């Protein structure tokens, strides 16, 4: 899935775990949602966020890392607002070289401001 959308739906590539996007989700431009990901209702994926079934997601409000067990889908929680982020590599050559990796970050859960922004997106379309 790579589109701006506010629809619910299931897209199931052959041989892969399904991608499920529940109702009233906002997908910003250039988002990518790939195998084994469930995006729960009302979540917002800001422009540029990429998630796969094996992408850990850093949930700042709840101070936890959402990391699916092998064979399980990644679940983006209901109402989560996810933006593109980066995390430092903390071991080995990546650490010595000062590398960081791209990672989705939940910065907040949906509030009135998000509703206003996403409502505007709906109006634009
Ligand atoms: C996510 C979005 C809806 C903003 O939601 P919001 O609830 O108003 O978010 P806020 O402005 O309260 O931001 C919360 C935090 O996330 C950060 N943030 C918000 N959007 C961000 C983004 N796209 N990338 C990185 N950080 C972002 C803000 O800077 C803020 O962090 P801070 O408090 O440290 O400054 C908006 O950024 C977005 O991506 N809209 C989709 C645009 C688009 O793709 N349109 C095309 C379809 S028509």
Please characterize this protein's 3D structure.
With 125 residues, this protein is of the alpha/beta class. Helix content is 14%, strand content 36%. The protein is built from 2 helices and 12 strands, in the order βββββββββββαβα. The strands form 3 sheets. A 6-stranded mixed β-sheet has the order 3-6-11-12-8-9, with no helix packed on it. The radius of gyration is 15 Å and the shape is globular. The two termini are 18 Å apart.
Order of helices and strands: EEEEEEEEEEEHEH
Stretches where pLDDT falls below 50 for ≥5 residues? 1-5
Which radius of gyration do the C-alpha atoms yield? Answer: 15 Å
Q: What is the strand arrangement across the widest sheet?
A: 3-6-11-12-8-9
Which ligands appear in the coordinates? coenzyme A
N-C termini distance: 18 Å
Q: Which structural category do the helix and sheet elements fall into? A: alpha/beta
Helicity level, as a percent range? 10-25%
Mean pLDDT: 88
Structure summary, number of beta strands? 12
Strand content: 35-45%
- Subunit arrangement of the protein: single chain
Shape: globular
Largest sheet, if any? Answer: 6 strands, mixed
Number of helices, where a helix is a run of at least 4 consecutive DSSP H or I residues: 2
Structure summary:
The protein has 125 residues and is α/β, with parallel strands linked by helices.
Blueprint of the fold:
Layout: E1 9-11, E2 19-21, E3 26-27, E4 32-33, E5 37-39, E6 44-45, E7 50-51, E8 57-59, E9 64-66, E10 74-76, E11 80-88, H1 92-96, E12 100-109, H2 112-124
Parallel strand pairs: 2-5, 3-6, 4-7, 5-10, 6-11, 8-12
Antiparallel strand pairs: 1-2, 8-9, 11-12
Bound molecules: coenzyme A.
Coenzyme A binds next to strand 11, strand 12 and helix 2.
């Amino acid at each position: 899935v790579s589109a701006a959308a506010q629809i619910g739906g299931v897209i199931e590539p052959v041989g892969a775990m399904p991608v499920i996007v529940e109702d009233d989700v906002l997908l910003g431009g250039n988002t990518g949602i790939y195998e084994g990901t469930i995006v729960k209702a009302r979540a917002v994926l800001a422009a540029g966020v990429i998630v796969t079934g094996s992408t850990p997601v850093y949930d700042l409000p709840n101070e936890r890392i959402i990391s699916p067990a092998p064979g399980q889908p990644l679940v983006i929680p209901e109402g989560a607002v996810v933006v593109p982020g980066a995390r430092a590599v903390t071991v080995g050559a990546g650490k010595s070289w000062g590398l960081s990796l791209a990672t989705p970050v939940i910065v907040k859960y949906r509030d009135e401001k998000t509703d206003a922004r996403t409502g505007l997106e709906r109006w634009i379309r």
